Fold this sequence. Notes:
Bound molecules: 4'-deoxy-4'-aminopyridoxal-5'-phosphate
Number of helices: 14
Largest sheet: 7 strands, mixed
Number of strands: 14
Strand content: 15-25%
Radius of gyration: 21 Å
Amino acid sequence: MSHDRLAWISEELADYERRDLRRRLAVRGGAQRGDGIQWQGARLANFGSNDYLGLATHPDICQAVRQAVERGGWGSGASPLITGRGELHARLEERLAEFEACEAALLFPSGFAANVGAITCLAGPGDVIFSDQKNHASIIDGCRLSGAAVRVFPHGDVDALRTMLCDAGGFRRRLIVTDSLFSMDGDFAPLADFAELADEYSAMLLVDEAHATGVFGERGRGVCELLGVESGVHVRVGTLSKALGSIGGFVSGSRPLIEWLVNRARPYFFSTAPPEAIAAAGLAALDLVSDEVQRRERLLERSARLRAELAERGFRIGNSQSQIVPIIVGEAARTMEAAARLREQGFFVPGIRPPSVPSGESLLRISLTYHHDDETIDRLLAAIEVAVR
Ligand code: PMP
């Protein structure tokens, strides 16, 4: 029977099970909020959400989506290069360019697609990409798909990158790619040093701000803004799916860059354009990022307090500088047990294990959002004392 051809899959899955690496889908009940979700019959405080500013349920965004659907329906029907791109898409792209203080921006179906699209347009056979060891999977896949030579440098290691740049003669173009805020460790890339190296070695620099857009910088543009390095970064990737509470990714930069992506980025024009209502949500979210600065301020104050309290209690939080706070546990099985004990006490904190992190570096990943108040954080700290010892 034909399904026997796939019998190997069950064997592989059993092997994942034995190694504590088997993942299973779950269903969240109710809305996505940091202060509470329904989870397998229980109400849990949710520390496993990237809705950092608490915008995923914001009434302005929901209203903008409803109006867009009433006016234009739901589906976009085609690639943006055919008939899929509507007025709201164009307005969002203009607004994103303005927000990012760049000449132009382009909306992708997801941040994943934005990274793959941008990287494959910037480097190809005969070129070389320098990529941080802890970069997101979408960057890794973009590098692989590009056909360029890939040199992976140790996490945040400026000297190692310099040596690699120095040793990489004979290539046509060079591209340095990095997350600005690393999604599992919550630390920043040394962007000022990378920008200097890019300058010195005539390399392009692409920075993925997925977890920092809306959260860092005076205007909420991200870590590049915070560290004052925007002029040294040639290509910026962001996403609407985290602090902006929606879905979709974007690339911002010079007009020729964006024109090049329109012509060459396969994940852009071989996918149907996102519904215009998504663009309406993005526009409403950008208004909130500009108007409600207290959301990011409060989030960052509470993140600093959580980090300080965990460090004081002797937990290993690595170099987190942000609203993403890992507790490094080590073994996958111990990590998943700690996550289960936290759920028993009313807290959803995801356990992260290989392949998302290297073997032996499994961790609990706490993401704070605007909806976590001081009292909930105190209760979480008490629960961690019980669950992680
Ligand atoms: N870049 C980074 C650093 C990410 O963490 C993620 C999402 N986990 C992405 C890109 C992809 O973004 P999206 O969820 O919008 O596809």
